[in-house]
Amino acid sequence: MNDNLTFYESRKEHRNVTIIGVPLELGSDERGFSEAPTYVLKEGLEKVITDAGGENIEIQTVPCRTPERVVSAGNTKYLDEIVATAKVSKVLVEKAIKRDDFVVAIGGDHSMAVGTIAGAAAALHGKRVGVIWIDAHPDANTDETTQSGNIHGMPAASRMGFGHPLLTGIDSNVPNILPENFLYLGLKDIDTAEIEFIRKHSIKTITMMDIEECGLSRATLAIDALRRKTGVIWVSMDMDSIDREYAPGVGMPTDGGFSRREILNLARYIGKTCTLAGLDIVEIVPKKDVERKTVTLALDLVAQFMGSERGWYQHYMDQYRETNVTKRELEEKKEIAYANKRKNRNA
User: Fold this and answer.
1) What are the CA-CA distances from residue 239 to residues 133, 252, 260 (Å)?
2) Which CATH class is domain 12-310?
3) Which of 65, 68, 209, 219 is the most buried (most CB within 10 A)?
């Protein structure tokens, strides 16, 4: 039975899971992204995935080169290094999805999506693949429109087949994501060239202004429309789409982004209604995190995208159960000790 309570049921789909760490930080001028995969793992990613129904978890790490100085190729920085990383990421994601694993890719800056989405598209060749891009920025610049030369502002355009040929041509067997199968959620900081790109290709976009005006209703309708016309969806989740109050530990902290409630409900809706091949979690900078807010929210989002629940109530109930188990064990030990004492006394 599907009703409005369905979204609060913890649905555990038992699937094998591959975690892919991509410690890439060359797509941005910010440094610290490379520490995020280790940070998220250390804070309990494996347990979160296991609690959500994940099984046979395999952890892989993509090697990322870090030159000592800025290397430019035309209007792009570190192009060769990022392409090399993308090719490895593509292969790992493709292999994981082909063996029917759910993929959780932890970045790294958002340029890592050049490889992860390419891997999903290659593995699902022949199916209509959709992408839900949750971000404050469209990342739809190309080498011709970029103002900074940073490739983390280009991955969405490149995966739709626009931009530098080395970024669009990661592998000959990788089909482009059709613009009509691409959905932006949470945009608010958009370059003029990106606005023109989105309009030119008629890409469905839900901005933060839409969220302010209508809550999540336009977003859920857009998700439903994408789900109906595609078979499988990849989610690319940039943590800088969330307001700095809830996610301070990101490369570009933002004001006016998603609230904690909004982003968790959005992830819950996607996780309950869509068939996902996997997801990216990107742009976390551990040294900027405050009271573990960002990483805790990221872990909660992974659970929600997997169709499970992980919030304060679940934390509370877990602690309650653990406390009660400990109490019962102590009581049992006391009873055994008391019984042994009586037995020895009567002997």
Assistant:
1) 11, 9, 11
2) alpha beta
3) 219
